[in-house]
Amino acid sequence: MLARRSLLLLSAALLPAAAAPPLVVVASFSILADLVRQVAGGRVRVVSLVGPDQDLHAYEPRPSDLRTLAGADMLVLNGLGVEGWSARMAQASGFKGRIVVASKGVRPLHPATGGAAGADPAEGQYDPHAWQDVANVKRYVATIRDGLAAIDPAGADAYRAGAAAYLVQLDRLDADIRAAYAPIPAARRRVITTHDALAYYGRAYGLEFRAPLGLSTESEPTAKDIAALERQIRGEHITALFFENISNNTLLGQIARDTGVRVGGELYSDALSPPDGPAATYIAMMRHNLVQIVAALR
Ligand SMILES: [Zn+2]
Fold first, then answer.
1. End-to-end CA distance of the chain, in Å?
2. Residue 12 CA to ligand 1 centre (angstroms)
3. What's the gap in Å between 271 CA and the centre of ligand 1?
């Protein structure tokens, strides 16, 4: 009797989901796609335009991406100018869904000064890598949660619960990062990466990052730029140098050889790893990077 009742309840719970096709949420890159999955659980289908280990800065929409977007209910963007293609793509695809800019409300960094920005974000004006500060990602999660509730009011409670549980994990992550850096002297907290992806991380957790490439991997440093960076590296106490999963690391390998600075490993900056890799989720990515950096700075 009990078994039969459970079965009936189970069918009732499954039927509505089976009757309607799931909502489709398109995210611009793998880190955002993970945040949507953490909030939505299995309630929506999430597609990432830029996949694991792929470079967001080099993305160009493919015809298949336009077809995917055409049938989607929501598009989640980072904002801060990193998806310059998004407005044209949304229009060309005939996308009629909701656009959510996940970085809404975060305090953006200005690329040239590393200081806070004032006016409205425009393409190339601000540092887009705000996800490298866990406090910013908590805002991303709240914005994504509200966007999901707007396109699917019946799921609002589920999204609230999903976001609340995930925010607890993010708080723990943030506390663990701070605790891990606390014993490291300020003078040792200087790191070189391939491109300028970690300024928010540096601001949040008290590290200094330098990079031969600017905010986009698409920028090309001159021989003069590289020589100046190498002089800086030799003049200051730079502890470690890190490759990035999305970048061509030839230039950084050259700088490591020229200056004798040790390569500390590979950081995940703008993309997750594939599911079987060490950074399959945002939290796994941040923990992987933390272990690598702390080991190199100690
Ligand atoms: Zn980047």
1. 63
2. 46
3. 9
Handedness of CA 9, 12, 15, 16 (dihedral sign): negative
Q: Is the pLDDT of residue 4 over 70?
A: no
Tokens of 259: 């200056």
Distance 110 CA to ligand 1 centre (A): 14
Q: How far apart are CA 129 and CA 8, in angstroms?
A: 48
Alpha carbon of 269 to ligand 1 centroid (Å): 7
If you measure from the C-alpha of residue 129 to the centroid of ligand 1, how many angstroms do you get, rounded to a whole number? 6
Q: How many residues does the chain have?
A: 298
**Spacing, Cα 57 to ligand 1 middle (Å):** 6
Residue with tokens 């707007």: 150
Reference 198, options 278, 126, 267; nearest CA is 267
* Domains present along the chain, CATH in parentheses: 18-176 (3.40.50.1980), 183-297 (3.40.50.1980)
What is the reported pLDDT for 219?
77
Compute the distance from residue 155 Cα to the ligand 1 centre, in Å: 33
Residue 215 carries which DSSP code? Answer: S
Q: Which letter does DSSP use for residue 154 in this model?
A: G
Mean pLDDT of the chain: 90
Residue 64 near residue 26 (C-beta atoms within 8 A)? no
pLDDT band at 118 (very low <50, low <70, confident <90, very high): very low
Cβ atoms within 10 Å of 13's Cβ, excluding its own: 9
Beta strands in the chain (DSSP E): 23-29, 44-50, 74-77, 98-101, 190-192, 208-210, 240-244, 263-267
